[in-house]
Amino acid sequence: MAQQIVLRAKIILRAGQGDGHGEISRGLGVSKEMSRTWRRRWLALRAQEVSVIDRLKDAPRPGAPATFSVEQITQLYAMACAPPEQYGRPISHWSPQELADELINQGIVETISPRHVGRLLAEADLKPHQTRYWLHPPRTSSSHPKSRRSVRSTSRP
User: Fold this and answer.
1) Could you give the 3-state DSSP secondary structure of residue 45?
2) What pTM, to 2 d.p., does this model score?
3) What is the pLDDT of residues 88-141, one digit of tens each?
4) Maximum distance among all Cα pairs of the chain, rounded to whole angstroms
5) Cβ-based neighbours of 99, under 8 Å, separated by 6 or more
6) H helix or E strand, kind and range, residue 28
């Protein structure tokens, strides 16, 4: 956030010095459209009594506010990366439905759909079914060790 404010301030300062949008975009490594947008916005808010920082902040976005906090989403990611048995689940890997149920059971969220869990995991590029606990589950006491045979090469150099 602070870096964005600084970049936007640099755009405004360079525009105030008379630099064109092309010069600003090349000098700061931004698009001409970004340069135009922030200069227009700066000039539009000039007539209002808005602080400098508020003039450089993002405009309110359309749509509903986020439903889940960053902490809740982080807890989802942590759960998805842990073996289901850690949560008392008798399954070999997490599904979006199982994760949604466990998030609700743990009281992390009041409600969440399996579809939304899937979207959040896809956004983060998390694939619980491909994590190490799934590909290489820990051995249980009932599993038999594989016999190891020595393999000797019969070819000679």
Assistant:
1) helix
2) 0.47
3) 999 988 999 999 999 999 999 999 999 999 999 998 887 765 655 444 555 655
4) 87
5) 76, 79, 80, 114, 117, 121, 128
6) helix 21-28
What residue type is 36 in one-letter code? R
**Helices (H) and strands (E) in the chain — how many of each?**
8, 0
132 close to 150: Cβ distance less than 8 angstroms = no
B/e letters for 75-97, b = 16+ CB within 10 Å, e = fewer, are bbeebbeebbeeeebeeebbebe
DSSP three-state, residue 43:
helix
SS3 of residue 106 by DSSP = coil
The pair of three-digit structure tokens given for residue 108, joined into one six-digit string: 């992390």
Distance CA 123, CA 120 (A): 5
Sign of CA dihedral 98, 104, 108, 110: positive
3-state secondary structure at position 102: helix
Q: What are phi and psi of 74, to 5 degrees?
A: -65, -40
Both structure tokens of 67: 């439903």
